[in-house]
Write a structure and sequence with these properties.
Blueprint lengths: L3 E4 L21 H5 L13 H4 L11 E5 L2 E9 L9 E9 L2 E8 L2 E22 L6 E24 L4 E24 L4 E24 L4 E9 L1 E15 L18 E8 L3 E5 L2 E5 L10 E10 L4 E10 L8 E5 L4 E5 L11 E11 L4 E8 L10 H14 L5 E4 L2 E3 L1
Parallel strand pairs: 1-20, 18-22
Antiparallel strand pairs: 2-5, 3-4, 5-6, 6-7, 7-8, 8-9, 9-10, 9-11, 10-15, 11-12, 12-13, 13-14, 14-17, 15-16, 16-19, 17-18, 19-20, 21-22
Length: 414
């Protein structure tokens, strides 16, 4: 008998397809309707992602294509150029983001799934008039970005007993990012400055998921999963160029110092070496990385089946903190001067996060049902205190955006 589904979502935050939130989308009709509170259920093909151990208790073979995913992502940066001068970005996507199937071989369940977690596209232009604390009359900003993440791989699940099952999914991951940014600044005395940035990154890896399910009673089920991303290869290239007739952009680019004449700076960085050409001098630096954070994630779930019509579930999600260190050294063979900075890669730093999800499913009749869900999606980015931010801004204001500690005439810390 066919069923008509009514989905009602109650969510606390919109889904975030960025690097500083872990929940990018929901996969499968049942898990989506219950806001991802699915670790203790996972008895259909979407269990390949949420908890492969749940496949052992699936009723029959199934295939799921989640083709109703539509997302609008907005990023708002308030007062970034001064009071009431905001900078906004917008992305939209509509595409199938999950395809999964499950097949039974006696007690063994075998599955395969393809997950498209991120597929974002930003393309916009903004004009800022009279940015605060600068000598710029107008600032034109062009920004475009393409981000894509794909996971695909097999799953297996086996019931150890009538109450306990184990399962595993092994995803191959492919993550790419392409960013292009252009800025044109015009001063009050016909000064002109242009800044261009091009970055391309490709990262490959594996993401294993290990799951367990235990039927505590006939109505109460517990679930547990562990997952972690492992980087195995990739590439990255970054090119920046700056042309100025005077230091117009020094307020917005900490790499610039106060100079009197126009100049050209060209930077090229990849996973092998970095080079900077400034004032006809070549500076050699350490490479950059294509790697993504390798965070440990634990999901604990509990589901209560009151009767054949009503089920409720709860998930608690924990992600461990992560830090990545890469030596940052630059050497100028013309002046024989060496500079170094903190080896901590701030864009890869993640703090520990807790999230939870709560879901309900109720069959009004045999053909109509309601699913409700609520979840959190807290940021994993580093939180800077007000005092820390104020000190940094004060140093930038006094020192032209760059704080340098001279150790000796040939060595400095940036």
């Amino acid at each position: 008998m066919s069923k008509f589904f009514i989905f009602i979502f109650i969510i606390s935050f919109s889904l975030q397809s960025d690097d500083f939130h872990y929940i990018h989308s929901f996969y499968g009709p049942r898990a989506s309707g219950m806001a991802g509170a699915y670790t203790a259920i996972s008895d259909d093909s979407s269990g390949t992602y949420y908890n492969p151990a749940g496949l052992a208790f699936s009723y029959d073979d199934s295939i799921t294509i989640n083709a109703t995913s539509y997302q609008t992502i907005r990023k708002n940066y308030h007062n970034i150029f001064g009071p009431w001068q905001d900078y906004n970005q917008k992305s939209q996507k509509y595409l199938p983001d999950f395809v999964g199937t499950v097949k039974s071989f006696d007690k063994l369940r075998v599955g395969f799934s393809i997950v498209n977690g991120i597929h974002d596209s930003y393309d916009q232009d903004n004009t800022i008039y009279l940015p605060s604390n600068s000598s710029i009359a107008t600032l034109d900003i062009g920004f475009s970005q393409e981000k894509f993440n794909l996971m695909m791989g097999p799953s297996v699940s086996y019931p150890i007993s009538d109450r306990f099952s184990v399962g595993m999914t092994l995803y191959y991951t492919y993550d790419t990012s392409r960013t292009s940014s252009k800025r044109l600044a015009e001063g009050f005395k016909n000064e002109v400055a242009t800044f261009e940035l091009e970055e391309r990154r490709e990262t490959r890896g594996f993401n294993p998921i290990i799951g367990f399910q235990y039927l505590l009673t006939e109505k109460l089920v517990l679930g547990l999963t562990y997952r972690k991303n492992f980087n195995i290869g990739g590439s990255i290239s970054l090119k920046e160029s700056l042309l100025e007739t005077s230091p117009l952009l020094s307020t917005f680019d900490p790499m610039l110092t106060s100079v009197d004449n126009g100049y050209l700076i060209v930077e090229q960085r990849n996973e092998k070496v970095s080079t900077i050409v400034a004032d006809n001098h070549l500076v050699i630096g350490t490479p950059i990385t294509h790697k993504l954070p390798e965070v440990n994630k634990f999901n604990f779930g509990i589901a209560y089946f009151l009767n054949k019509r009503f089920v409720t579930s709860f998930d608690l999600m924990y992600a461990t903190p992560y830090k990545y260190y890469l030596p940052q050294v630059e050497y100028n063979p013309y002046t024989f001067q060496t500079s170094f900075s903190s080896s901590l890669k701030n864009d890869l730093e993640r703090r520990a996060t807790y999230n939870y999800a709560l879901g309900f499913e109720y069959y009004i009749t045999e053909t109509f049902l309601i699913r409700l869900g609520y979840y959190t999606n807290r940021s994993n980015g580093k939180i800077a205190s007000w005092a820390e931010t104020a000190v940094e801004l004060a140093l930038n204001e006094q020192l032209g955006g760059k704080f340098i500690i001279p150790i000796n005439e040939k060595l400095e810390y940036i």
